[in-house]
Amino acid sequence: MQIHNRSLGFNIVILSLTFLAVILLLFSLLWPKPIASSTPLPENLYTAKSVGHQVVIYQSGRPEPIMMTGIDIRTLPPVDQQALSEGISLRDATALAHLLEDYDA
After folding, report:
1. Phi and psi, residue 28, nearest 5°
2. How far apart are CA 15 and CA 64, in angstroms?
3. pTM across the whole model
4. H helices, E strands: number in the chain
5. Do residues 88 and 54 lie in contact, with contact meaning Cβ atoms separated by under 8 Å?
6. Beta bridge partners of 72
7. 96 CB burial (10 A radius; 0-12, 13-18, 19+)
8. Torsions phi, psi of 65, nearest 5?
9. What are the two backbone dihedrals, phi and then psi, of residue 55, each rounded to the nearest 5 degrees?
10. Measuring CA to CA, which residue among 28, 91, 32 is closest to residue 59?
């Protein structure tokens, strides 16, 4: 009788471990996988440039400006004026907001 009880306990442990392994396998197979985007996001959504004496904002893919800021570039340091003449690429709306806040101060 003693051997039978040990065998039963061992079988219960093995059965429990097998059940756990099957559950984990199902989770790993059914867990949603990240989907790679087929359309890459543009690296820089906005560009700030100087047009005349004003800071102007362009959006990626649009030839016309989306914002005429009214910020006079002559009030900015020469380094910023040079950067704006070449165009400053901005990754997102937050970066654009920070740039405008810095220049408008």
Report:
1. -65, -35
2. 69
3. 0.59
4. 3, 4
5. no
6. 54
7. buried
8. -65, 150
9. -85, 125
10. 91
